[in-house]
Amino acid sequence: MAELRTLARPYAKAAFEFALGAKDLQTWSDMLGLAAAVSQSDRMQQVLASPRYTAAQKAAAFISVCGEQLDAKGQNFIKYLAENNRLPLLPEIRQLFEALKSQQEKSIDVEVSTAFELAGDIQDKLAKALSAKLDREVNVHSSIDKSLLGGAIVRAGDTVIDGSVRGRLAKLAEAMNA
Question: Looking at the keywords, is Transport present (predicted)?
Answer without folding.
Answer: yes
